[in-house]
Amino acid sequence: EAQVTQNPRYLITVTGKKLTVTCSQNMNHEYMSWYRQDPGLGLRQIYYSMNVEVTDKGDVPEGYKVSRKEKRNFPLILESPSPNQTSLYFCASSPWGANEKLFFGSGTQLSVL
Amino acid sequence: KNEVEQSPQNLTAQEGEFITINCSYSVGISALHWLQQHPGGGIVSLFMLSSGKKKHGRLIATINIQEKHSSLHITASHPRDSAVYICAVTSLDRDDKIIFGKGTRLHILP
To answer: Do A104 and B48 touch (CB under 8 A)?
Structure first.
């Protein structure tokens, strides 16, 4: 089944403890991206990648890192999480770019205490 | 002012009614997306538009590039259509970044 898989679904952590949220797609898509969703602010783009080894900042990249070493995976890394990064995170992919249909993962609810 | 504005923010309607959700944007775009998010659920792409009109079942999406406006219509609405509908644009002005509206919360009463 074609899908975007995010893990974990829920994560509770403490300030400063490095964490990684994984995102994997099995559709051979070139484009992958990360978003956070907050009440009253909606969805905002964190980082995106047009291809392997190519990443670009979205609107809210501060405090996050990404890597795209292989086409199928696009992990989101929080080196030193802070409470203001408590949010619902979504990964998405599309065949070639952001002007094509997006396929979303099921989301990761992160709480930083 | 937000670059992508949706209206209304909230909408409650009776089953069977014709629903319209509007999206206006202020940037140059290469694509406009309509997304659906059910409570506690993930996000599903309904439409991706760059011009004209698209139809899928009871859903119709239109876009007017000159007026920088798009509408999402739902015909014969049903309680299972209750969800948040999100408009998003792929911005030409900002290196293909995606900018989202804040969403329209739709509640269809049986």
So the answer is: no
